[in-house]
Amino acid sequence: MQSLYAYRGTESDNFSKDEKFLLHSLDSMYDLYLSIFALLTELHKKSVDYNKKIQQTLSNIEEGRNMPSMIESNKVLKIIVSNAKLQEIIKKRKLNFWDLDFEYVDILFKLINNSSITQAYAKTGKTSFEADKNLIINIYSEVIAPNDKLYEYFEDKKLTWVDDLPIVNTAIVKLFRKLKESNPDTFLLPELYKDEEDRTFATTLLKKTLLNASKFGGEIALKTKNWDADRLASVDGVLLKMALCEFQKFPSIPYKVTINEYLEIAKEYSTPKSSIFINGILDRIIKEYKEEGLHPKAGRGLL
Q1: CA triplet 248, 253, 256: central angle to 5 degrees?
Q2: Average pLDDT of span 144-159
Q3: How does pLDDT run across 205-231, given as a tens digit for each residue?
Q4: Fewer CB in 10 Å around end: N or C, the chain?
């Protein structure tokens, strides 16, 4: 979507640069994913160091479990820190820049320790893997992911990361929910592409959408006469063109799958009402296709 939104060429242009940009953007998104795990690693290290200082001074120790020790003993963070493959890839790709930008680790560490989430967890006294996992999911969702200073940091680090952040944050939370103590090390290192076919699909969707941009734009315009032109020039217009490309050029993908996918993207990247707008337009287009026998989907049970 970023490649299409940034595109300023014509349908007759060579798309090799755009394809390279797409693949680079996807690879960059994976770097963001790894850098966040490097951040979680540093937060754990910060907790370890903090607790050592407390033990040495024998001060500021309250009865029961103190907040930093809960971070240090968290079973999910221990899995991340002890994952040799994950840590090796982070090191190889030079993505642990948090030792230099330690102030962001300090800010998040203090916010985590003072959060109502951590305090509520401390009162339960539970130490199970599921309890630790829920703690990390809540801390990540409510403290780390929405932090403005971290958002600004990623924006300064690499501009495209700001657009990637919602997708990566969602992927990390989903990963944590599925995490088990018995998972292999590779569980935290999902493949960027399912297979070569998946990679080919991404580049093919880009090319076919660009090649047919005028055609798709004209078809959309007929269904949006009463809508603001600025909306169609924005992300919504790009998403509609991509959806039409899947409708017309990818017969094996069901209409419902395409619609659901772009509605989710619209919720993350566009305006609050975008998903309603996109759903209404695509629904009308599909009804016309079916009435006129256009662009049927191949395979049993596909709609």
Answers
A1: 95
A2: 95
A3: 999 999 999 999 999 989 888 776 665
A4: C
Question: Could you tell me which residues come within 8 angstroms of residue 227 by beta carbon, excluding any fewer than 6 positions away?
Answer: 277
Burial class (CB in 10 A: 0-12, 13-18, 19+), 281: buried
In total, the chain counts a number of residues equal to 303
Per the CB < 8 A criterion, the answer to whether 172 and 33 are in contact is yes
What backbone torsions phi and psi does residue 75 show, to the nearest 5 degrees? -70, -35
